[in-house]
Amino acid sequence: MAVLTGLEPAKVFQYFEEICAIPHGSYNTKPISDYCARFAEEHGLRYIQDEFNNVIIFKDGTAGYENSAPVILQGHVDMVCEKESDCTIDFEKDGLTLILDEDAGAISAQGTTLGGDDGIAVAYALALLDSDSIPHPPLEVVLTTDEEVGMLGAAAMDCSPLQGRIMLNMDSEDEGYLLVSCAGGATAIARIPVTRATANGFKVTMTINKLKGGHSGVEIHKGRANANQLMGRTLNELRKVVPFQLLSVNGGLKDNAIPRESVAEILIDAPQKAALQAFVAKWQSVYSAEYITTDPDVTLSISAGEAGTFKVMDSQTKRRVIASLVNLPGGVQRMSADIEGLVQTSLNMGILTTSDGEVAMHFAVRSSVSSEKEELLSRVECLIEMLGGTVERYGDYPAWEYNHDSKLRDLMIKIFEKLYWRKPVVQALHAGVECGLFAGKLPGLDCVSFGPDMSDIHTPQESLNIASVERTWKYLLEILKRLN
To answer: Is pLDDT at 18 greater than 90 in this prediction?
Structure first.
Protein backbone atom coordinates (compact mmCIF):
# COMPACT_ATOMS: atom_id res chain seq x y z
CA MET A 1 0.00 0.00 0.00
CA ALA A 2 1.26 3.47 -0.86
CA VAL A 3 2.54 5.40 2.15
CA LEU A 4 2.02 8.92 0.77
CA THR A 5 -1.56 8.53 -0.50
CA GLY A 6 -3.71 11.42 0.64
CA LEU A 7 -0.93 13.99 0.72
CA GLU A 8 -1.19 17.12 -1.43
CA PRO A 9 -0.21 17.80 -4.12
CA ALA A 10 -1.30 14.26 -4.87
CA LYS A 11 0.53 13.82 -8.20
CA VAL A 12 3.79 15.15 -6.80
CA PHE A 13 3.76 12.70 -3.90
CA GLN A 14 2.61 9.86 -6.15
CA TYR A 15 5.63 10.31 -8.40
CA PHE A 16 7.96 10.87 -5.45
CA GLU A 17 6.91 7.54 -3.95
CA GLU A 18 7.37 5.79 -7.29
CA ILE A 19 10.87 7.28 -7.57
CA CYS A 20 11.74 6.11 -4.05
CA ALA A 21 10.78 2.55 -5.01
CA ILE A 22 13.47 2.50 -7.74
CA PRO A 23 17.17 2.13 -6.83
CA HIS A 24 18.78 5.37 -7.99
CA GLY A 25 22.08 5.96 -6.25
CA SER A 26 24.88 7.67 -8.13
CA TYR A 27 26.45 5.39 -10.77
CA ASN A 28 23.26 3.28 -10.68
CA THR A 29 20.93 5.52 -12.66
CA LYS A 30 19.84 3.34 -15.58
CA PRO A 31 16.65 2.12 -13.82
CA ILE A 32 15.46 5.62 -12.90
CA SER A 33 16.47 6.96 -16.32
CA ASP A 34 14.43 4.24 -18.02
CA TYR A 35 11.50 5.06 -15.75
CA CYS A 36 11.60 8.70 -16.90
CA ALA A 37 11.87 7.64 -20.53
CA ARG A 38 8.87 5.30 -20.16
CA PHE A 39 6.91 8.12 -18.58
CA ALA A 40 7.56 10.29 -21.63
CA GLU A 41 6.52 7.50 -24.01
CA GLU A 42 3.33 6.75 -22.06
CA HIS A 43 2.36 10.44 -22.13
CA GLY A 44 3.16 10.92 -25.82
CA LEU A 45 5.99 13.35 -25.13
CA ARG A 46 9.14 13.77 -27.20
CA TYR A 47 12.26 12.88 -25.23
CA ILE A 48 15.98 12.28 -25.52
CA GLN A 49 17.79 9.67 -23.41
CA ASP A 50 21.55 9.75 -23.88
CA GLU A 51 24.29 7.21 -23.20
CA PHE A 52 24.94 8.79 -19.79
CA ASN A 53 21.29 8.16 -18.77
CA ASN A 54 20.41 11.86 -18.87
CA VAL A 55 16.83 12.45 -20.02
CA ILE A 56 15.31 15.54 -21.64
CA ILE A 57 11.50 15.63 -22.00
CA PHE A 58 9.74 18.25 -24.13
CA LYS A 59 6.18 19.53 -23.81
CA ASP A 60 4.43 22.26 -25.81
CA GLY A 61 3.06 25.35 -24.09
CA THR A 62 -0.58 25.35 -23.06
CA ALA A 63 -3.25 27.56 -24.64
CA GLY A 64 -2.10 31.16 -24.67
CA TYR A 65 1.53 30.16 -24.07
CA GLU A 66 2.29 28.49 -27.38
CA ASN A 67 4.65 31.28 -28.49
CA SER A 68 6.22 31.97 -25.08
CA ALA A 69 9.94 31.42 -24.59
CA PRO A 70 10.72 27.84 -23.53
CA VAL A 71 11.46 27.24 -19.85
CA ILE A 72 13.96 24.63 -18.66
CA LEU A 73 13.00 22.71 -15.52
CA GLN A 74 16.07 20.99 -14.13
CA GLY A 75 16.95 18.49 -11.43
CA HIS A 76 19.02 15.35 -10.99
CA VAL A 77 17.83 11.77 -10.68
CA ASP A 78 20.60 10.31 -8.50
CA MET A 79 20.71 10.31 -4.71
CA VAL A 80 23.37 9.94 -2.02
CA CYS A 81 23.07 6.43 -0.55
CA GLU A 82 23.91 6.56 3.16
CA LYS A 83 22.52 4.17 5.76
CA GLU A 84 22.74 3.26 9.42
CA SER A 85 25.25 0.54 10.28
CA ASP A 86 22.51 -1.96 11.11
CA CYS A 87 20.44 -1.28 7.98
CA THR A 88 20.38 -4.23 5.56
CA ILE A 89 19.16 -2.41 2.43
CA ASP A 90 21.06 -3.08 -0.80
CA PHE A 91 21.00 0.27 -2.59
CA GLU A 92 21.83 -1.44 -5.89
CA LYS A 93 18.64 -3.52 -5.81
CA ASP A 94 16.22 -2.26 -3.18
CA GLY A 95 13.85 0.67 -3.02
CA LEU A 96 13.50 2.84 0.08
CA THR A 97 11.12 2.18 2.95
CA LEU A 98 9.25 5.45 3.42
CA ILE A 99 8.09 6.72 6.79
CA LEU A 100 5.27 9.27 7.08
CA ASP A 101 5.46 11.21 10.35
CA GLU A 102 2.16 13.07 10.44
CA ASP A 103 2.93 14.72 13.78
CA ALA A 104 6.14 16.22 12.42
CA GLY A 105 4.62 16.80 8.99
CA ALA A 106 7.59 15.13 7.33
CA ILE A 107 8.67 12.17 5.24
CA SER A 108 11.83 10.16 5.88
CA ALA A 109 13.21 6.71 5.02
CA GLN A 110 13.83 3.86 7.42
CA GLY A 111 17.54 3.69 8.21
CA THR A 112 18.64 5.46 5.03
CA THR A 113 18.84 8.73 3.20
CA LEU A 114 15.55 9.77 1.60
CA GLY A 115 16.79 11.16 -1.70
CA GLY A 116 14.59 14.24 -1.48
CA ASP A 117 17.77 15.73 -2.88
CA ASP A 118 16.81 15.65 -5.69
CA GLY A 119 13.91 13.26 -6.11
CA ILE A 120 11.43 15.99 -5.29
CA ALA A 121 12.56 17.96 -8.35
CA VAL A 122 11.90 14.94 -10.56
CA ALA A 123 8.48 14.49 -8.94
CA TYR A 124 7.60 18.17 -9.51
CA ALA A 125 8.62 17.88 -13.16
CA LEU A 126 6.67 14.68 -13.83
CA ALA A 127 3.57 16.05 -12.12
CA LEU A 128 3.73 19.09 -14.38
CA LEU A 129 4.22 17.00 -17.50
CA ASP A 130 1.31 14.79 -16.46
CA SER A 131 -1.15 17.69 -16.27
CA ASP A 132 -3.27 19.10 -19.08
CA SER A 133 -4.75 21.91 -16.96
CA ILE A 134 -1.74 23.75 -15.53
CA PRO A 135 -0.82 26.81 -17.64
CA HIS A 136 2.82 26.92 -18.68
CA PRO A 137 5.18 27.94 -21.50
CA PRO A 138 6.88 25.26 -23.60
CA LEU A 139 8.81 23.03 -21.18
CA GLU A 140 12.20 21.40 -21.54
CA VAL A 141 12.62 19.10 -18.54
CA VAL A 142 16.28 18.25 -18.00
CA LEU A 143 16.94 15.31 -15.67
CA THR A 144 20.63 14.67 -15.14
CA THR A 145 22.63 11.82 -13.63
CA ASP A 146 25.50 11.47 -11.17
CA GLU A 147 25.20 15.02 -9.86
CA GLU A 148 26.22 13.87 -6.40
CA VAL A 149 29.57 12.51 -7.60
CA GLY A 150 30.82 15.46 -9.62
CA MET A 151 27.89 16.52 -11.84
CA LEU A 152 29.03 13.99 -14.39
CA GLY A 153 25.75 13.78 -16.28
CA ALA A 154 25.44 17.52 -16.75
CA ALA A 155 29.08 17.77 -17.78
CA ALA A 156 28.60 15.12 -20.47
CA MET A 157 25.20 16.29 -21.73
CA ASP A 158 24.77 17.62 -25.25
CA CYS A 159 22.76 20.80 -24.68
CA SER A 160 22.30 21.70 -28.34
CA PRO A 161 18.65 20.49 -28.40
CA LEU A 162 17.75 22.99 -25.67
CA GLN A 163 16.18 26.22 -26.89
CA GLY A 164 15.34 27.67 -23.47
CA ARG A 165 17.45 30.31 -21.80
CA ILE A 166 15.34 30.50 -18.65
CA MET A 167 16.10 27.73 -16.15
CA LEU A 168 14.33 26.80 -12.94
CA ASN A 169 16.74 24.54 -11.08
CA MET A 170 14.93 22.69 -8.26
CA ASP A 171 17.92 21.42 -6.28
CA SER A 172 17.82 23.63 -3.18
CA GLU A 173 16.79 22.54 0.30
CA ASP A 174 15.52 25.68 2.03
CA GLU A 175 12.14 27.18 1.22
CA GLY A 176 12.29 30.94 0.96
CA TYR A 177 15.86 30.97 -0.31
CA LEU A 178 16.65 31.76 -3.94
CA LEU A 179 20.07 30.51 -4.94
CA VAL A 180 21.77 32.67 -7.57
CA SER A 181 25.45 31.69 -7.34
CA CYS A 182 27.52 28.71 -6.17
CA ALA A 183 31.03 27.40 -5.80
CA GLY A 184 32.94 25.35 -8.33
CA GLY A 185 34.70 22.18 -7.38
CA ALA A 186 36.46 18.93 -8.20
CA THR A 187 37.02 15.46 -6.84
CA ALA A 188 40.53 14.37 -5.84
CA ILE A 189 41.71 10.88 -4.92
CA ALA A 190 44.99 10.68 -3.00
CA ARG A 191 46.69 7.28 -2.98
CA ILE A 192 49.44 6.05 -0.66
CA PRO A 193 51.06 2.78 -1.82
CA VAL A 194 51.07 0.02 0.78
CA THR A 195 53.92 -2.37 1.45
CA ARG A 196 53.04 -5.20 3.81
CA ALA A 197 54.94 -7.42 6.22
CA THR A 198 54.02 -10.42 8.33
CA ALA A 199 53.45 -9.88 12.06
CA ASN A 200 52.04 -11.79 15.01
CA GLY A 201 49.72 -10.24 17.55
CA PHE A 202 46.23 -9.61 18.81
CA LYS A 203 43.90 -7.95 16.28
CA VAL A 204 41.69 -5.12 17.54
CA THR A 205 39.06 -3.13 15.66
CA MET A 206 38.93 0.55 16.63
CA THR A 207 35.82 2.50 15.66
CA ILE A 208 34.86 6.16 15.69
CA ASN A 209 31.15 6.59 15.03
CA LYS A 210 27.84 8.25 15.96
CA LEU A 211 28.93 11.52 14.39
CA LYS A 212 26.34 13.79 12.75
CA GLY A 213 27.96 13.97 9.33
CA GLY A 214 26.08 16.01 6.76
CA HIS A 215 26.48 17.65 3.36
CA SER A 216 30.07 18.69 2.72
CA GLY A 217 28.94 21.89 1.00
CA VAL A 218 25.88 23.02 2.90
CA GLU A 219 27.08 21.96 6.38
CA ILE A 220 30.87 22.12 6.17
CA HIS A 221 30.89 25.37 8.19
CA LYS A 222 29.16 23.81 11.20
CA GLY A 223 32.38 22.42 12.65
CA ARG A 224 31.22 18.82 12.73
CA ALA A 225 33.86 16.15 13.17
CA ASN A 226 35.13 14.27 10.14
CA ALA A 227 35.45 10.62 11.24
CA ASN A 228 38.38 9.91 8.91
CA GLN A 229 40.42 12.85 10.12
CA LEU A 230 39.54 12.04 13.71
CA MET A 231 40.77 8.50 13.18
CA GLY A 232 44.06 9.87 11.87
CA ARG A 233 44.42 11.96 15.02
CA THR A 234 43.56 8.94 17.17
CA LEU A 235 46.13 6.69 15.52
CA ASN A 236 48.78 9.39 15.78
CA GLU A 237 48.16 9.77 19.51
CA LEU A 238 48.00 6.02 20.02
CA ARG A 239 51.42 5.39 18.50
CA LYS A 240 52.94 7.58 21.26
CA VAL A 241 51.74 5.32 24.08
CA VAL A 242 50.89 1.88 22.66
CA PRO A 243 53.02 0.07 20.05
CA PHE A 244 50.78 -1.24 17.27
CA GLN A 245 50.74 -2.40 13.68
CA LEU A 246 48.18 -1.08 11.19
CA LEU A 247 46.21 -3.45 8.98
CA SER A 248 43.58 -1.17 7.49
CA VAL A 249 41.62 2.04 7.89
CA ASN A 250 38.26 2.66 6.22
CA GLY A 251 35.53 5.26 6.57
CA GLY A 252 32.80 7.15 4.76
CA LEU A 253 30.73 6.29 1.72
CA LYS A 254 30.53 9.50 -0.36
CA ASP A 255 33.12 12.19 -0.98
CA ASN A 256 30.48 14.91 -0.62
CA ALA A 257 29.13 13.62 2.70
CA ILE A 258 30.99 14.36 5.94
CA PRO A 259 31.85 10.83 7.16
CA ARG A 260 30.08 9.68 10.31
CA GLU A 261 32.14 6.56 10.93
CA SER A 262 35.72 5.38 10.48
CA VAL A 263 37.20 1.99 11.38
CA ALA A 264 40.84 0.95 11.85
CA GLU A 265 42.16 -2.58 12.31
CA ILE A 266 45.31 -2.70 14.40
CA LEU A 267 47.59 -5.37 15.82
CA ILE A 268 48.96 -5.18 19.37
CA ASP A 269 50.78 -7.47 21.77
CA ALA A 270 48.41 -9.05 24.28
CA PRO A 271 50.04 -7.32 27.32
CA GLN A 272 49.08 -3.94 25.76
CA LYS A 273 45.33 -4.54 26.08
CA ALA A 274 45.00 -2.64 29.35
CA ALA A 275 47.01 0.31 28.03
CA LEU A 276 44.83 0.41 24.91
CA GLN A 277 41.64 0.40 26.99
CA ALA A 278 42.98 3.26 29.10
CA PHE A 279 43.86 5.20 25.94
CA VAL A 280 40.36 4.75 24.54
CA ALA A 281 38.75 5.91 27.78
CA LYS A 282 40.96 9.01 27.88
CA TRP A 283 40.35 10.05 24.29
CA GLN A 284 36.65 9.32 24.50
CA SER A 285 36.54 11.98 27.20
CA VAL A 286 38.61 14.37 25.08
CA TYR A 287 36.39 14.00 22.02
CA SER A 288 33.18 14.20 24.05
CA ALA A 289 34.37 17.51 25.49
CA GLU A 290 35.62 18.94 22.20
CA TYR A 291 32.51 18.04 20.22
CA ILE A 292 29.87 18.43 22.93
CA THR A 293 27.96 20.91 20.76
CA THR A 294 28.52 19.70 17.21
CA ASP A 295 28.74 15.91 17.74
CA PRO A 296 27.52 15.13 21.27
CA ASP A 297 27.22 11.38 20.61
CA VAL A 298 30.76 10.86 19.28
CA THR A 299 31.99 7.42 20.30
CA LEU A 300 35.47 5.89 20.31
CA SER A 301 35.40 2.16 20.95
CA ILE A 302 37.37 -1.04 20.46
CA SER A 303 36.33 -4.64 19.92
CA ALA A 304 38.59 -7.62 20.45
CA GLY A 305 39.52 -9.94 17.64
CA GLU A 306 41.67 -13.03 17.47
CA ALA A 307 45.35 -13.64 17.96
CA GLY A 308 47.30 -14.80 14.95
CA THR A 309 49.59 -13.94 12.07
CA PHE A 310 48.55 -11.07 9.81
CA LYS A 311 49.71 -9.05 6.83
CA VAL A 312 50.25 -5.57 8.27
CA MET A 313 51.54 -2.33 6.77
CA ASP A 314 55.28 -2.05 7.22
CA SER A 315 56.49 0.69 9.55
CA GLN A 316 57.23 3.18 6.78
CA THR A 317 53.79 2.74 5.19
CA LYS A 318 52.10 3.13 8.57
CA ARG A 319 53.94 6.40 9.20
CA ARG A 320 53.01 7.72 5.75
CA VAL A 321 49.33 6.83 6.11
CA ILE A 322 49.04 8.38 9.56
CA ALA A 323 50.97 11.47 8.43
CA SER A 324 48.61 11.97 5.51
CA LEU A 325 45.49 11.60 7.66
CA VAL A 326 46.86 14.04 10.24
CA ASN A 327 48.27 16.68 7.90
CA LEU A 328 46.01 16.81 4.86
CA PRO A 329 43.79 19.90 5.05
CA GLY A 330 40.12 19.46 5.82
CA GLY A 331 37.00 21.51 6.37
CA VAL A 332 36.68 25.25 5.82
CA GLN A 333 39.84 26.84 4.44
CA ARG A 334 38.62 30.37 3.82
CA MET A 335 35.46 32.41 4.33
CA SER A 336 34.28 34.99 1.82
CA ALA A 337 35.34 38.55 2.54
CA ASP A 338 32.47 39.87 0.40
CA ILE A 339 29.46 37.83 1.55
CA GLU A 340 29.05 37.43 5.30
CA GLY A 341 28.77 33.82 6.42
CA LEU A 342 29.64 32.30 3.02
CA VAL A 343 32.30 29.60 2.90
CA GLN A 344 34.63 30.43 0.03
CA THR A 345 36.95 27.41 -0.03
CA SER A 346 36.80 23.97 1.61
CA LEU A 347 37.50 20.28 1.18
CA ASN A 348 36.16 17.09 2.70
CA MET A 349 37.82 13.69 3.01
CA GLY A 350 34.60 11.79 2.49
CA ILE A 351 35.91 8.30 1.69
CA LEU A 352 38.89 6.41 3.11
CA THR A 353 39.61 2.88 1.87
CA THR A 354 42.37 0.29 2.27
CA SER A 355 43.21 -2.45 -0.22
CA ASP A 356 46.16 -4.79 -0.41
CA GLY A 357 48.16 -2.29 -2.43
CA GLU A 358 47.06 1.19 -1.35
CA VAL A 359 45.22 3.49 1.01
CA ALA A 360 42.94 5.88 -0.93
CA MET A 361 41.48 9.15 0.32
CA HIS A 362 38.64 10.75 -1.68
CA PHE A 363 38.12 14.51 -1.39
CA ALA A 364 35.37 16.87 -2.47
CA VAL A 365 37.12 20.21 -3.11
CA ARG A 366 35.03 23.39 -3.45
CA SER A 367 35.68 27.07 -4.00
CA SER A 368 33.95 30.05 -5.53
CA VAL A 369 37.43 31.31 -6.53
CA SER A 370 39.01 29.06 -9.13
CA SER A 371 42.58 29.99 -8.19
CA GLU A 372 41.93 28.96 -4.58
CA LYS A 373 40.53 25.62 -5.72
CA GLU A 374 43.71 25.01 -7.71
CA GLU A 375 45.89 26.08 -4.79
CA LEU A 376 44.10 23.69 -2.45
CA LEU A 377 44.47 20.81 -4.89
CA SER A 378 48.16 21.66 -5.19
CA ARG A 379 48.57 21.48 -1.42
CA VAL A 380 47.08 18.00 -1.39
CA GLU A 381 49.29 16.93 -4.29
CA CYS A 382 52.42 18.39 -2.69
CA LEU A 383 51.98 16.54 0.58
CA ILE A 384 50.95 13.24 -0.98
CA GLU A 385 53.85 13.30 -3.42
CA MET A 386 56.26 13.94 -0.53
CA LEU A 387 54.79 10.86 1.15
CA GLY A 388 55.38 8.76 -1.96
CA GLY A 389 51.82 8.80 -3.25
CA THR A 390 49.85 10.14 -6.19
CA VAL A 391 46.74 12.27 -6.67
CA GLU A 392 44.10 11.87 -9.38
CA ARG A 393 41.53 14.59 -10.01
CA TYR A 394 38.32 14.47 -12.03
CA GLY A 395 34.82 15.93 -12.21
CA ASP A 396 35.89 19.58 -12.34
CA TYR A 397 32.90 21.90 -12.55
CA PRO A 398 32.86 25.70 -12.78
CA ALA A 399 31.53 28.19 -10.30
CA TRP A 400 28.17 29.75 -11.10
CA GLU A 401 28.75 33.48 -11.17
CA TYR A 402 26.19 36.01 -9.95
CA ASN A 403 24.06 37.58 -12.72
CA HIS A 404 23.49 41.25 -11.90
CA ASP A 405 20.75 41.57 -14.55
CA SER A 406 18.54 38.53 -13.88
CA LYS A 407 14.95 39.18 -14.93
CA LEU A 408 14.01 35.71 -13.66
CA ARG A 409 15.37 36.47 -10.20
CA ASP A 410 13.47 39.77 -10.06
CA LEU A 411 10.23 38.08 -11.14
CA MET A 412 10.62 35.27 -8.61
CA ILE A 413 11.21 37.78 -5.82
CA LYS A 414 8.00 39.63 -6.70
CA ILE A 415 5.97 36.42 -6.87
CA PHE A 416 7.41 35.19 -3.58
CA GLU A 417 6.49 38.44 -1.83
CA LYS A 418 2.96 38.17 -3.20
CA LEU A 419 2.48 34.58 -2.04
CA TYR A 420 4.37 34.64 1.23
CA TRP A 421 4.02 38.27 2.39
CA ARG A 422 7.75 38.47 3.04
CA LYS A 423 10.95 38.80 1.08
CA PRO A 424 12.92 35.72 0.04
CA VAL A 425 16.57 35.38 0.94
CA VAL A 426 18.72 35.73 -2.18
CA GLN A 427 21.93 33.87 -1.55
CA ALA A 428 25.13 32.41 -2.88
CA LEU A 429 25.95 28.86 -1.75
CA HIS A 430 29.14 26.95 -1.10
CA ALA A 431 27.61 23.68 -2.27
CA GLY A 432 27.78 23.00 -5.98
CA VAL A 433 24.73 22.93 -8.23
CA GLU A 434 24.55 22.21 -11.93
CA CYS A 435 23.61 25.76 -12.90
CA GLY A 436 27.25 26.70 -13.46
CA LEU A 437 27.74 23.90 -15.98
CA PHE A 438 24.57 24.80 -17.86
CA ALA A 439 25.43 28.51 -17.82
CA GLY A 440 28.69 27.64 -19.55
CA LYS A 441 26.90 25.58 -22.21
CA LEU A 442 23.90 27.86 -22.79
CA PRO A 443 25.07 31.45 -23.39
CA GLY A 444 22.73 34.01 -21.87
CA LEU A 445 21.12 31.55 -19.46
CA ASP A 446 19.05 33.17 -16.70
CA CYS A 447 18.81 30.70 -13.83
CA VAL A 448 17.59 30.51 -10.23
CA SER A 449 17.64 27.49 -7.92
CA PHE A 450 14.97 26.88 -5.28
CA GLY A 451 13.15 24.06 -3.50
CA PRO A 452 11.18 22.95 -0.44
CA ASP A 453 12.48 22.46 3.08
CA MET A 454 14.66 19.41 3.70
CA SER A 455 16.81 18.65 6.70
CA ASP A 456 19.87 16.48 7.33
CA ILE A 457 20.37 15.68 3.64
CA HIS A 458 23.02 13.07 2.83
CA THR A 459 22.40 11.40 6.21
CA PRO A 460 19.97 8.68 7.34
CA GLN A 461 18.13 11.38 9.29
CA GLU A 462 17.15 13.18 6.09
CA SER A 463 13.53 14.40 6.01
CA LEU A 464 11.25 16.29 3.61
CA ASN A 465 8.69 18.78 4.90
CA ILE A 466 5.24 18.00 3.50
CA ALA A 467 3.66 21.45 3.83
CA SER A 468 6.74 23.04 2.26
CA VAL A 469 6.44 20.72 -0.74
CA GLU A 470 2.89 21.97 -1.32
CA ARG A 471 3.79 25.66 -0.90
CA THR A 472 6.77 25.33 -3.24
CA TRP A 473 4.55 23.58 -5.79
CA LYS A 474 2.13 26.52 -5.77
CA TYR A 475 5.11 28.89 -6.07
CA LEU A 476 6.41 26.94 -9.09
CA LEU A 477 3.01 27.04 -10.79
CA GLU A 478 2.73 30.78 -10.28
CA ILE A 479 6.20 31.34 -11.74
CA LEU A 480 5.29 29.34 -14.84
CA LYS A 481 1.98 31.20 -15.14
CA ARG A 482 3.83 34.53 -15.14
CA LEU A 483 6.50 33.45 -17.66
CA ASN A 484 4.33 34.27 -20.70
So the answer is: yes
